[in-house]
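Lab notebook, bench 4. Continuing the backlog of folding jobs that were queued last week. Each job is logged with the same field layout so the records can be merged later without manual cleanup. Today's entry covers 2,3-dihydroxybenzoate-AMP ligase, a 547-residue chain. Filled in by technician R.K.

JOB TYPE: sequence-to-structure
TARGET: 2,3-dihydroxybenzoate-AMP ligase
LENGTH: 547
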Amino acid sequence: MTIPFTPWPAEFTARYIEKGYWIDLPLTDIVTRHCVDSTSASRTALICHQRQFSYAELNCLSNILAHHLHAQGFKAGDTAVVQLPNVAEFYIVFLALLKVGIVPVNALFNHKQLELRAYIEQVQPALMVVSNCHQLFHDDRFVSELNADTPTIRHWLVEGEATFGTSITELLMAQQEESNEEVVEFTSTPASEVAFFQLSGGSTGTPKLIPRTHNDYYYSVRASVEICQLDSDTVYLCALPAPHNFSLSSPGAFGVFYAGGTVVLATDPSAMSCFPLIHKHRVTMTALVPPAVTLWLQAASDYKRHLVSLNVLQVGGARLSESLAKQISPVLGCQLQQVFGMAEGLVNYTRFDDDSWHVFNTQGRPISNDDEIKIVDEQGNEVPDGIAGALLTRGPYTFRGYFNSPDHNANAFDADGFYRSGDIVKRTTTGYLIVVGRDKDQINRGGEKIAAEEVENQLLVHEAVTNAALVSMPDTVMGEKSCAFVITTNPALKAITLRKHLRARGVAEYKLPDRVEFVAQLPMTPVGKVDKKQLRQTIQQTLIIKK
Ligand code: OOB
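JOB STATUS: finished
OUTPUT FIELD FOLLOWS
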């Protein structure tokens, strides 16, 4: 069994293979390639708090877990929903699943019932992998609910102490002692097929899943390693959520593993968590979203000596202002690389030999010569360089369709298979992209993406809410925060009541409206849609007056 997905047309497949982008190897090769000689196998792959793992150990532990899953009857084409924090087990589990051919959705650790249920509904997993550090999995209440609602689930793996399911920690310890290495040949999914699902930032009511094949993902990793010049001396701090495309593959942990370097895990991107780790492990490179950069710049004056090993700071996920960009090198003592990417595929980098204008003012250029970019006006006609338009792209690592979403896909792609990213960009004459805005119904809250419709739907569930519209409002640190315009039948309804309501519905904390404006009516466009442009102007005016 393989997972259905929209394939690249045959002529593209042939070209990507011929050009050496798709090399027909599974993603697990990223780690197993180092296990053929003992020198590289013994190098440190991963540091997680007090624990260190060599490439050999990472491979061995994932084998143990793969054996366990194989013995439980799991096979290629099964699916899993995984939710782990930034811990070593995230990669051990991921590799194990890839080895057996189990196709995971890696949920973010700050996701709650609403998001997890949406993923579970879409992939009908046989396996759940969760952490008892997550509030939903302190006990087995939510587990029982999910088991009752989802007959496909037949096994739970738990990171930490398990009050239900099988403890990953105990399993790995017990098996390592016994070391009964009976040799089972695992079969991953074919390299041309789906390896795992990436999460879409989304703009619709239910979050969409992005099928990523071994071939396309592995190419983006190798090409990123080359551009970012990683090698076995690279020590990369993973401070953003581990499943995110940025920290996983741009070049992220997978890139570092491919190069034979070391990944150091941080629990969060705060200066307090990260600076001591940078100092202790002599970290050379890391990736941040812009709000974390602001906090690092504020904290750095007292701790600059902690950062001497840091060579490269990648910033992406949301627009970095020129003024912030300019402070990075003088204050943090490292080089800036801007990264404009998306879980759907396309990733752009500024290059290390770019002049400072490009590094401060652009979001980079695509990874691949075969990344095709179209920038179009509202009629769909391509615009000249320097003129803003909607970004469309296709290429050797950009997907061709969301999972099981024919209706949505009909609009998300043009007739030639170009994906509409929903970003408004300009191209420089040098071929670099500048992100100037967005035409998707999404709020980018400091790199965390909020699909307006998803939150609006949950607001509408409240009995006293008759209409709701979520829009972005400017924020100095986060770039954007969210504001809900709400029409209610209850004049006494309070913002806090709505936030409580959303929490009770299992909406992730970062999606709760930062502000609620109760209104008598919502402005409409001529075609009868809520006029969000006008709402954004209204809240901007309100904020200016209040200042
Ligand atoms: C990354 O991936 P996603 O899937 O969380 O979000 C993609 C969207 C883009 O379409 C764009 O709207 C926004 O995030 N974005 C940026 C940006 N990088 C991403 N907007 C302005 N400036 C940037 N530098 O966010 C992502 C994936 C891989 C690498 C880096 C970021």
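OBSERVATION: The pocket of OOB is lined by residues 201, 245-246, 250, 316-319, 338-343, 347, 363, 421, 423, 435, 438, 444, 449 (CB under 6 Å).
SIGNED: R.K.
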